[in-house]
Amino acid sequence: MKRFGDAVRLAVGTLTTVPVPAPRVIDRRVAGAAMTLGPVAAVPLAVVAGLIVAGGNALGLPAPAVAALALGAVALGSRGLHLDGLADTADGLGASYDRAKALDVMRRGDSGPTGIATLVFTLLIQVGALTGAITAGHGVVAVVIAVLVGRCTLSMSCARGVPSARPEGLGATVAGSVPVLVAVAVGLIVAALAGLVLFGLAPGLDWWRGPVAVAVGYAAAAVLLARCVRRLGGMTGDVLGAGVEAAVAGALLALAA
Fold it and tell me: What is the DSSP string of 90-156?
């Protein structure tokens, strides 16, 4: 029970700006549980984003502005952690085919042209897709599902068998810490819940679009993860963040129309 509390604190403290006490113990078991609880920790972010979309609709604000505000609130509520990871990962992959040099570029933390361009294009995709969902009348459901799907992919990226690219850092702590069956269960559960949400809250939208959105989000994160494992020799904390943003973009695209 104590370890579960530590896992909750680690997940909330790492993935959001919600103030929580520091975990008393951080080991692989706690780290794996924290990555599995990623979508639970992100529920407040999803709720805030959903409320912004609902409020923007009620006030008659332009859909692109509402989409940008909602996604901006999510970024602010997660300290821009995943966006930073996306930019660093893009810079590393674009810098060199040499593994050590690529990891060194990612470690520096400053964003180069490749990272900035990737960040801009990804945000344009996210905002554009959410704008489409808002215009179609199911923006609240779309943003909530997408935000949670992005965090669900953390367990996949930390599943056993996925190595760490470095011997230190967040990636080394969480790499391979989630049992494969647990990671699969997280994906199946969120797919089922997405279908139920669309069936109950978006009757004008086919229920199967929910599971499809989850599948597209997971596929986007999985492709990026596979690329990083081949190029970098494993995953890092930056790769985790990049996977989250890729999954959010994929899920929103699947729910855009």
Answer: HHHHHH-S-HHHHHHHHHH----HHHHHHHHHHHHHHHHHHHHHHHHT-HHHHHHHHHHHHHHHHHH
